[in-house]
Amino acid sequence: MIKFILNLISPYVHPFEKKADKFFQSIKSTSNPEKVRSELQILMSRNLVVLDLWMEKKYKGYKYLKKGVRRRMYENVEMLNKEFDQYVVRRTVKLAQIRGQIESHGLKFPEQFSQKIEYLSLIMSYLRPGKRYEYLVSANFGKLLKDPTKEKLIGDCNQIVTLYTYLYSRKFPVSDLKIKILPKHVCLHFEGIDIEATNATFHHYKDFEYILPITELISTNLLDVTDDTEQTGEIDPRTVVKRAQLAFAISSMRELVERNLKAAYQNLGITMMNKKNFDSAIFFFEKLGDQEMIRKACHNAAIHYLNSGKLKKAEFYAGRAGSEDLKKSVTRNQGVKLYKQGSYNKALEYFKRIGDDGMVKACYQAQYNKVVRKVKGVKTIADARKHRADYQKMLDLAHKMGNEEAAGFARDMLGKI
Predict the structure, then answer these.
(1) Per the domain annotation, does 80 fall within a domain?
(2) 107 within some domain
(3) Taking a C-beta distance cutoff of 8 angstroms, is the pair 260, 247 a contact?
(4) Taking the CB of residue 86, how many other CB atoms lie within 10 A of it?
(5) Residue 12 located in a structural domain
(6) Is residue 314 part of a domain?
(7) For residue 61, what pLDDT band results from cuts at 50, 70 and 90?
(8) CB contact at 8 A, 102 and 192
(9) Tell me: the pLDDT tens digits for 93-145?
(10) Domain range for 93
(11) Residue 120 and residue 143: Cα distance in Å, rounded?
């Protein structure tokens, strides 16, 4: 019963989903790229299908990838494995024909890898477009994970290369394979031979951008556009940053992933700023080295805390914002707060700092009035003598206020006593 309840509330429907999620959660901006790639390659070898599907759920936000749907997809994969294994047993590979196809492109047939070439050719034959597979641009990975005995598997170049890689990894090390990045396209690459998974043919593409380790298949899937035929939910900006950090850690396409990571930091910083989480906003803007946005976040923070009455925080952020007008406004509000509390000496420090003569006089006036209340009950000269210090203070304050009438009164009283 307990196990049933735990399964019910768990976000996972497959044990490997938890492993994949733990890996994705562990990625940080400071993660060691070599370690990340090594861990990723191990995960790809163990179960690329679950890894890639969980990645789509986590980082692309497809609403259809609910627990029941994913569970059914994994069942379909088991059906696919079974049917493919049966296909391999029934199928006779004509190695001479494969050699001829490869050599027709001016490529040398790698004799030492003939067993692996044979297996790849079986994957190609099984997934040849028509009977079991149909190409569709920008299709999500889930469209490939159908029951092959009942429906066609649908996918774009990234997704069908992923499925090829998964089937290959069931028998041979996934590290044998590479991917070749072409203009707006990707194909599988093995020992100098291009495998065009979308039409199950051997090729030798000469116009290409990169030949990359198979781990970078994950980054190409991350960077690929979403399937516009499926609804997607709003993705939390922190998740977007995690996605960009993962791509940054494993991808050789530095210009693209750096641009994406910067955009993710920028968007998350703005989101945090709008949510009044100013320290987090500043943290991400600092990662970008964007001084203008750092100043803006500090300025907004100072205004927010000024309006909230948290003047110490307002003072801190105003100082970082570098706006003299803002610092002056915060200082004045600090003085006003102390003035209202009756802390006139402390308030004077703030008003003098910003040269607010009006409030400086107001503080002296308030102090003067306070002393006046002390001597209000004086009726005789004898009583007045007891308040000599107070009358002297009144004289000093009257001078500071520039109030000659008040100063004259204090001098007159001091003369009498």
Answers:
(1) yes
(2) yes
(3) yes
(4) 10
(5) yes
(6) no
(7) confident
(8) no
(9) 899 999 999 999 999 999 999 999 999 999 999 999 988 999 988 788 889 99
(10) 2-233
(11) 22
**Three-class secondary structure assignment of the chain:** CHHHHHHHHCCCCCHHHHHHHHHHHHCCCCCCHHHHHHHHHHHHHHHHHHHHHHHHHHHHCECCCCHHHHHHHHHHHHHHHHHHHHHHHHCCCCHHHHHHHHHCCCCCCCHHHHHHHHHHHHHHHHCCECCCEEECCCCCHHHHCCCCCCCCEEECHHHHHHHHHHHHHCCCCHHHCEEEEECCEEEEEECCEEEECCCCEEECCCCCCEEEECCHHHHHHHHCCCCCCCCECCCCHHHHHHHHHHHHHHCCCHHHHHHHHHHHHHHHHHHHHHCCCHHHHHHHHHHHCCHHHHHHHHHHHHHHHHHCCCHHHHHHHHHHHCCHHHHHHHHHHHHHHHHHCCCHHHHHHHHHHCCCHHHHHHHHHHHHHHHHHHCCCCCCHHHHHCCHHHHHHHHHHHHHHCCHHHHHHHHHHHHHC
Residue 398: how many CA atoms within 13 Å on its side-chain side?
17
Q: Total structural domains in the chain?
A: 1
